[in-house]
Structure formats: C-alpha cells, structure tokens
Amino acid sequence: MDHEEDLGRLEKIVGKLLAAYNDLKQEKDSLEGTLKEKDLEILELQETVNRVNGDKTAISERVAGLIDYIETWEKTNLKAGNPASDQGVELDEAGQKPEQQIISMAD
User: Fold this and answer.
1) Helix/strand/coil for 81
2) Residue 104 or residue 20, greater confidence
3) How many domains, the chain?
4) Domain span at 38
5) Of 45, 80, 99, 107, which alpha carbon lies 20 to 30 A from 89's?
6) How high is the mean pLDDT of the chain?
7) Contacts of 88 (CB under 8 A, 6+ apart)
8) Rounded Cα distance, 26 and 14, in Å
C-alpha cells in the first residue's frame, strides 16, 4: 500500500507541475504578444519622431530664409532711403517674392 500512496502523491505532484507549466506557457505567450505590440508601437513612434524632425528642419530652413529676406530688405531699403521699396529683392522660380510665398502657403 505504501507504493500506491507514493504513486498517488507522485500523480498529484506531476499534475500540479503540468498545471503550473501550462499557466507559465500561457503567460509567456501573452507576454510575447505584448512584446510584439510594443515593438510595433516603438516603430510607429520612431517614424513619427523622424517625420517631426524632418518638419522641424524644413521649418527652420524656411524661418532662416525669411530672416535672410528681411535682412536683405532692410539693408536694401535703408541704403535706398525708401522703406516701402522692394529693390534688390530676388524673385523665386515662380516669379514670387518671399512674402508672396508666405501668403500663398497660409491659404
């Protein structure tokens, strides 16, 4: 009878181990799914950061261009003594002055 009791206890222990194993396997599968979701989220956020950095660079370049335009305008008009003049201001490829570009971009 001792052997039957030992076998009964062994069966219970093996049953508990298998149940614990199954629980851990389910938890592992769940964590792997969460990890995949987080990896995708990280990729999306990296793309967003790259896009924002590109936008930031483009805006910085445009602001620098506006500052250069204003400085050129000030120098040209102060030398000419005519603050309302547009002498020395170059037109872009479309034949627009920088302020016309700004107005058309705002629309």
Assistant:
1) coil
2) 20
3) 1
4) 2-106
5) 107
6) 84
7) 72, 73, 75, 76
8) 18
Evaluate if pTM is beyond 0.85.
no
d(CA 1, CA 81): 117
Residue type, 80: A
Angle between helix axes 98-106 and 2-80 (nearest 10 degrees) is 140
pLDDT(67) > 80: yes
- For tokens 């199954």, the residue is 22
How many CB atoms are closer than 10 A to CB 76? 15
Distance CA 20, CA 48 (A): 42
Please report which helix (H) or strand (E) contains residue 31, including its range. helix 2-80
Answer yes or no: are the C-beta atoms of 73 and 87 closer than 8 Å: no
pLDDT band at residue 2 under the 50/70/90 scheme? confident
Distance of alpha carbon 18 from alpha carbon 8, whole angstroms: 15
Contact between 97 and 89 (Cβ < 8 Å): yes
